[in-house]
């Protein structure tokens, strides 16, 4: 429940322009594969809020390969690589497998929504 509240707070602050959202081709592809139309549409609506839209390039793919070598799954490595390419300060996730490897990723702070709230708001 706390995670949900934290996520909603961050989303609200994105809408208020306190934080900038980055959208990537990886997110687009993953979302389009979502079999639930209502969820797919709700996520796609966030694309309009994004200030940066990342397209595939060799730097993203090269970094994703390196992230894959530290144990991240391919899609997760691509998501994080896009965020690094966009020079994001944070990559928010609730995925424990990604969070477990957060200390291995130096270029960006990989954090869960509750940790983000603690770090940014408190």
Would you identify the regions where 5 or more consecutive residues have pLDDT less than 50? none
The CATH topology: Rossmann fold
Q: How are the strands of the largest sheet arranged?
A: 1-2
The helix content is: 55-70%
User: What is the SS-derived class?
Assistant: alpha/beta
**Form type:** globular
The residue-averaged pLDDT reads 96
By CATH, the architecture is named 3-Layer(aba) Sandwich
Write out key terms for the chains shown.
single chain; 122 residues; alpha/beta; Rossmann fold; two-stranded parallel sheet; 4 strands; 56% helix
Structural write-up:
This protein is α/β, with parallel strands linked by helices. It has a single domain (2-114), classed as 3-Layer(aba) Sandwich (Rossmann fold), CATH 3.40.50.1010. 56% of the residues lie in helices and 12% in strands. The protein contains seven helices and four strands; from the N terminus they run H-E-H-H-E-H-H-E-H-E-H. The chain has helices spanning 2-15, 25-32, 37-45, 58-69, 74-85, 96-99, 113-121; strands at 21-24, 50-54, 90-92, 109-111. Strands 1-2 form a two-stranded parallel sheet. Strand 3 (90-92), helix 6 (96-99) and strand 4 (109-111) form a beta-alpha-beta unit. Helix 1 crosses helix 7 (113-121) and helix 4 packs across helix 5 (74-85). The longest helix has 14 residues, at 2-15. The protein is globular. The chain starts with a helix and ends with a helix. The model has no long low-confidence stretch (mean pLDDT 96).
């Amino acid at each position: 429940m706390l995670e949900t509240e934290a996520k909603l707070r961050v989303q609200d602050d994105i809408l208020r322009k306190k934080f900038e959202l980055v959208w990537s081709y990886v997110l687009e592809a993953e979302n389009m594969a979502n079999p639930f139309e209502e969820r797919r549409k709700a996520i796609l609506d966030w694309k309009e809020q994004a200030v940066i839209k990342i397209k595939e390039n060799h730097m993203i793919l090269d970094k994703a390969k390196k992230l894959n070598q530290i144990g991240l799954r391919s899609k997760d490595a691509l998501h994080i690589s896009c965020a690094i390419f966009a020079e994001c300060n944070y990559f928010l996730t609730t995925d424990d497998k990604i969070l477990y490897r957060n200390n291995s990723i130096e270029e960006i702070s990989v954090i869960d929504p509750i940790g983000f709230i603690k770090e940014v708001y408190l």
